[in-house]
Structures are given as structure tokens and as C-alpha cells.
Predict the structure.
Amino acid sequence: MVRIVIGIAIGYVLGSRAGRERYEQIKRWTSAAIDHPAVQGAGGFVQAKVSELIGRPTS
């Protein structure tokens, strides 16, 4: 899930023609979102569920 969000953000940044200021703003938002405890928790939960569904132990 987090990788999808990162991919979307990177795609937008690379495709954006809004300039350096907009790039820096998006970069700050992305970093804040990735580092947020709720996102970290959700990512761990999703990873555990996917691992459970495919039968692999989590690392």
C-alpha cells in the first residue's frame, strides 16, 4: 500500500511541470505521510495479512 502511494507521488512529481517549489512541497507531504505512525501501522498490518494469505512468514 505504501509503495503504491509512493509510486503515485513519484509519478506526479516526475510528470509535474509546476516547478521546484511544488516538487519540494510534494516531497515534504510524502515524507510526512510515510513517517506517520498510522501509515506505518497500516503497512505492517497489510503486509502481515498478505503474508498470511499467501502462506509466507513475515520477516
